[in-house]
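Lab manual, section 2.4: Encoding a predicted structure.

Procedure: take the sequence of the chain (331 residues), apply the prediction step described in section 2.3, and record the output as structure tokens. A sample record is shown.
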Amino acid sequence: MRPAITLGLMSLLAVGVLSGAPFLGMYPIPMEAIFAPLEGNIEAEIFWNLRVPRVMAAFLAGAGLAISGMAFQALFRNPLATPFTLGVASGAALGAALYVRSGLSFALLSISGLSLSAFVGALGSILLVYGLTQIRQGFSVASMLLAGVAISFFFSSLILFIQYMSDFAQSFHILHWLMGNLGVTGMETVFEILPFVAGGALVILLLSQELNLLATGELLAVSRGLNLRRIRSLLFFVTSLTVGGIVATCGPIGFVGMMVPHICRLLVGADHRFLTPATLLFGGSFLTLCDTLARNLIAPAEIPVGVITALLGGPFFIWLLLRRASEKRLV
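Recorded output:
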């Protein structure tokens, strides 16, 4: 199937998911209720203030995580790379854990202290990885990976220490945040995520040709006039900030950034001019469907959406490893 046709079908899927998901829940919402005045209308309140913002937040988060994973896979030329490879999620989690353990409660410009602390942690992780990379070998792929993995393990151990030193309520709060959660109320969360996803998506879309060159290898990319240092630095900061903004608001939602780019490559090919919009559309639809399943599977209780994506991602990861092993045997 031609990539353009596949993109059209993915667009229809995204429209269908965004239109249909708000109606799915423990309490069915009739169509006429959503056009009624909000005041005194419980069904309209649930639809517009709970379900619509949650669906929009899920779509934006899924799109941002998926496109960031795609960019990292091209940057590292590694199909197993994820948006969390460089320790951004661990930094955000450390910031969130410190906030919960401190017992503080504040907000700034309608943004919760938890989200702000998580974003500061993510930003600190980004700057730390960049600084360590510069010290080693001038922003090479290998030094980025080494620095990211080291920071991720160190921050994860600090999070475990903080949990151990916390009381039951604080420890449960930290654990719940680490599972990833899209339980939002109102449009504030959507407006918090939107600038990061829109900015990251725009830059990555504009760099589609450069991503194609990166995926072919460093020697060919340099021979075509690509400034590797500039492109790597730009992609590193843009994707890391995108992921940091999402994780700070929704918590770490794993495997979306690994699974979706692979599925889209099978559908539209490896050309990033088509792969990038396909990943955006399918990533948003995928996480929205996962979140819809998470809030309906054991209603009225909810499963953290990160648990659903992990349950899907584990088998997918094994399949990917087996597929790569069989390809190597054929070669």
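Check your result against the sample. The mean pLDDT is 88.
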